[in-house]
Amino acid sequence: MANTPVVAVGRPDDLGWRQVTINDQPAGRVRSMGELRRLIRRAGLASGSDIRWIGEDCTNWPDRPWYRRIVGTLMAAGLLATACMLTVIGMKDAFGALTYSGRVTGIIFLLAAGLEIIAVLAAVDYWHKRRVAHSGMVILIGASVSLAVGLLMLIMLMIDGGRYTNYVPLWVIFTMLSVAALCILVRDRVWKTVPHPGRIAAGAIVSALLAVPNVTYTQIYIPYATSPILNSAAYFGKPSLNKGQTKMYLPVHLSVKNSGQIPVYVVGSIYWVHGWIPVAKRNPASRLIHDGEFVRPPGQSLNPGEEFSEDEVIEIHCPCENKYEKVDVQAELYAIRKDRMAIVGDYARSGENLDKLKEEGKDQDPRGPEGQQYFRYQTSISNSNEILNATRGRQRITLWYVKKHEWPYVYVVVEPPGERVNFDIWDPNRNKKAVDRYGLERVRSSMQQKPFVELMEMAKEQPSTSETPTPTTW
Length: 474
Hints:
Strand content: 25-35%
Structural class: alpha+beta
Mean pLDDT: 83
Order of helices and strands: EEEHEHHHHHEEEEEEEEEEHEHEEHEEH
Low-confidence stretches: none
């Protein structure tokens, strides 16, 4: 009897493992009678050896393989899917976000993706062997990150008024799986293997409370709240006459300068030269002499301190068919913040007139003003970071240059592809979403007005020219 090995089987742990010792030496762990018999045979003992059961008898094998495998697989799959999404968004933002805060967010997402991958490995260990003492705590952290990401994206989608995208089902699944995983892990009290878990949690919370407000204010709020400052001017140069004094060549100088701290795209521009005809017992009537774009090609970027200027030559027949009392010039442009979006297509070459759009069946996508001739520019845009691309979906910018009698105009909208645009230039809220999201701004230049007689006198003082300057036409 003295040489008979003593086989002892301990109590089952949370995962159903029971520790086996032979002569008080650890021999392994088992989760069923079959595993126990195989362990005894591998140890070279007879299958009929006496076994001492500690705490529970031979009928208590709480392991449920099907439950453990299903739960473990779902946890690992949810964490891996979260890691993939974080990697995709993080890579794009870390190297391509338009702002410093966006790139920092991308780096944070990449670090979170690394944590999720570690949590996937921990899930495999926790639901199989539990060789790592803190694997349950690592899964708890990973599931918390997955829940936070899912909720963050869904909340941003609702607050920002985004549309349904292919990401939405993933965020819903992330959130549901994360809640279920957290319930299971909390029930198992996975933090009991970590010394002083309360202190660790408190330290993380305090650090976040100190860092997040500071970063949010300095790197996000201040740049977002800063408005671009654009100054535009339009004025006449010195006119001249041809040799026969039948034509006046009137130079026009047009300019726009970015005097602020925010880079912008000038997505469209227009200028007008009007002559005012005196009408008896009424205010003077305007007559359009010339109009056109002055920022060409459209979509040019204008960084802080940069200025764009253009000189045009307007041709006026003299004596005028309708004698002008005065002549004025003014310009208008649309600008959009470059730190909130990027033009990703060839916007400058996207211009098409109405006849071409009708041939291609695009005159209703989006539709232009009814009964008016127009020229249209259109291209896709990207938001300042991939998170907004995921929540807002695809967006595109469209500009119409509308030829309307004496007062042609430009009009800009930012909408998802396929959106039926309500073309209403008098609706102050029509572009509210684009203004709030992208800082779309309509800028009027200063206006110069001169008596026509004064212009004629100035022209006569200039030497007559036989050359005919070519006026810019639209």
